[in-house]
Each structure stands twice: as C-alpha cells, then as structure tokens.
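Cross-posted from the bioinformatics board.
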Amino acid sequence: MGLRFFNTLTRAVEEFAPLDPAGKKVGLYCCGPTVHDFAHIGNFRTFVFADLVRRYLEFKGYQVTHVMNITDVEDKIIKRVRESGSSREEYTAKYEAEFFKDFDALGCSRPHHTPRATGHIDEIISLIEKLIARGIAYKAADGSVYFSIEKYRGCGCQYGQLVKLNFEELRPGERVSSDEYAKESIADFALWKARAPEDGQVFWPSPWGEGRPGWHIECSAMSMKLLGPSFDLHLGGEDLIFPHHEDEIAQSEGAGVQTAGEPFVKYWLHGAHLMVEGKKMSKSLGNFFTLRELIEKKKFTGREVRYLLLTAHYRESFNFTLEGLQSARTALARIDECVGKLQELAGDTISPADRAVIEEFTAALDDDLNVSSGWRVVFDWVKATNKALAADKLSLGGAKTALATWYKMREVWGLEAGKRSSKVLAEAVSSSPGHLTVPIQDAKRADAIRK
RNA sequence: GGCGGAGUAGCCAAGUGGUAAGGCACGGCUCUGCAAAAGCUGUAUGCGUCGGUUCGAUUCCGACCUCCGCCUCCA
C-alpha cells in the first residue's frame, strides 16, 4: 500500500494518486496567513503540518510545487491600518516579515510561491468576470459583486461538498454586517466589495467601481494561476472548511475553467486546532502563545516547538503545554546525543540508510501521516543504536549506515540541529569517542559549565 | 438546534475482534568524583459510563456523560 490521506471531500482515507499522468508532479496549496498581527502557535500548527505534507511527498520522490498565499487585504487589516495611521503596504509588510521570521525558526521550508492577494487584483477581477459572464455572480445595488449560490446550484454544481448543509435551515445570522444588505440570498458571499469610506486608501479600480476583493476569491485566483485549474492538494486549518474552502470550490468550479470531470482540488486536507494548557486558545484567557514569546520569554527553540507540533496527528486536536515543550526538549536531546556520537564515529560521509528501518518509517507515514508510529520507529532506532554504541559493537560502516538512516528520516521531520543547547555543549567539550568521561581535573570546570 | 471530531497510565500519544507501541515523568540496578548521558529494568488485569452481540471487546452495536470544532471573513 502506498501513501494515503484523509480527504475531507469524501470523509475517507484515500490512496494518493497525483493528477499528473506521469504520477510525478504534485500541486500543493496551503491557505497562508492574514498578516494583520503576529501569528500565534495555533496558526503555525497548520503551517508545520503543511510543511510535513510537502516534505513527505518529496521524501516519496514527488516533485512538489508548494504555494502559500499571503492575505494582505481584508477587514481586520483595513481596521488596523486605519488605527495605526500607516499605509496598508507598510503595515502588512511588517507582519509578513515577522511571519516569515517565525516560519523559518520553525524549520518550515519556504513555499515555492508566496503570492500576495494585492499582487493579483487583475487575476481576481478576471475570475469574477468569468463568474458574471456565466450568470453565477451579480452586481448588487450596493456596488459589490456577490456569488449566487442559487444560480450555482442551478447549473448542476454542488454547493456543500465539504460539509453537509441544510439550506432550508441556514439561519440568517444576527451579525450580518450592514454593508451586505444588498445580497439576494443570505448565503451569498462577496467576490468584490465596493469601496466604503472607512476603507481609506485601500481600494482598486474594477469594472464594477472602486473596491477590494472579497475574502475567498484570492485563493481561487492565485492557486489556479500557479497550479492550474485542477490541482492535487489543498490544505488549511479545519475552521476554513466552511465557508472559506467551500466557497473556493464554488468560485473555482463555477468559473468553468476545469476540464470536464476534473475537480478544482482532488484532495482536501485539514489540520485540527490547538488547545493551550487544556483550554481553547483565546485572548481573554491569556493563553495565546506566539512563537517569539516561547523563544524569547520561555527560552525554548523553534526546533523544540516544531518537534512538539509534530508529535500529534494532524487531525486530532492537540493540547499544547509548556510541560509538553519541556519533554520535547528532553526527547530531542536524546536523539541529538545519539546522533552526535554517530557523527564523531562516522563523520559526515555518505552511506545508504538502513532499508528495514526506512521501510518501517515509510509504512507509518504512508498511513495518513501517522507521526506517532513514525516516532516509534525513530526511538526504536535510537535505542538499538545506543545499545550497539554502549557495547562498542558498532563498526565504522554500521555507524555510517545508522547516521544515514537518521538523516533520511530527518528529511521528513525537518529537525536539523541548529545551535546545541549549553547542556549538550558541555558534554561535547568533555566527550571522547566511545565513552563520555570527564577527566578528574576538569570536574570543577564541568560544574561551572553546567551552571 | 444542525453537522463533524474526540475520550487509552501522572502527562502526551499509537493501536487491535484474542488480551495494550513510543515519548516525557517516576523507581531500581550498571557505569561514574558527584551528577548527567548511555545501558538493563519496573510501572494500565486496564482503554469515559452503562448495556448488548461474541467463545472472547479497549476494538463491533445501542444509549448516556464529558470535551472540542464548524454553522458568525478565526489556522
């Protein structure tokens, strides 16, 4: 059996088969950040998850094109821009830069493309024009353009592919904002929002007047531009299933740009949310970690945070705790210790990995990214390696193979060791091949280093 | 109210119709200036509750309890 993913579209685990007839190229899109503030640890769970998917596909030999959008125009951003007095460009550039700082600290591979919504206004407009031409979108009295779910369904398209929806009982929300009173139907959503006074300088010209894109449209426009009208994988947090992703499907398939019978996206993968210290993250509870807080105030590393995020299956809600980070630190140190010894023995030479271990590892990850089983393989390997090291039974060749085995698995985890912690450094100073012995005269120095 | 997900040792977390992986924490032993690391080793008669099916259920079915998400431009 090969790689399998749980597809939200079918609510089942499916064999992964790329659209590419050669079975080689894979298009992967992940909904990226809205750059209105520092991203929190929950946001990053999704990006680490997407990074794992990408790395594992590459590990499996696929040629992945990874796209992640930057949403740099949206209600909250406009509000903040107005309050801060800076321009939208200045404001979003700052938080985009901060976002990538954290993204890098977590060891996430940069996507091949990180398109900004505001850089694709033309594509967005042309997509909306297609929808209007097909009679699925309409310009309302307020100057905005809306997507008509009724018309869409009238074309034989299905709305509600990702969630079961009861249209008769769709409740008119109490919080329908006043600027959307012109919609024909309550479930219709904005493709283009007419310029409002509070938007300030944030607007673009369009065939329907000045305004800005709706929330969902940029993902449709940019993903199809960069990956084609049909692509393999679309990822995001579970909260995006509805309405964001449902609406993306509607906009993209409603435009009629796909080859007959081909979907906009073949596999939809959604990551579950994070809890913090047993509670739902919320600003009022104050349990809202940002990565920089964890790094600067709590003195953890991005690598430790990444490890912790990678210990739980992506579809299970996960309880993120400082205690968990502490145990992540210990577990990583154990791996590093073992790898450090191997490096001393084998150097950084290239050797084939242990096939049996890699096969076991692959079997674990193939199963909808069963990271827990993957870690079991890693720690069984650590144990076996340590045992051989302690018994002095590891030949040079054996050490090279063991090291290569870890490097292979590490490609998937993305946990390259950066700077060693002071504890490990102290040991590295006093270690010699084979056994870790501290010369007696160095005892005081060792104690000093320890402090 | 509608839809969906989950409840496994102190904490995190796999898994299976036939008797519970792994990590962290904790205890014992070996090694050691003391530690740490490493090695060996111990720790759930039990998998939310109550019923049912079965030779046998944690795994299947039903009910219930609890938690979480979406239905409201939050990853």
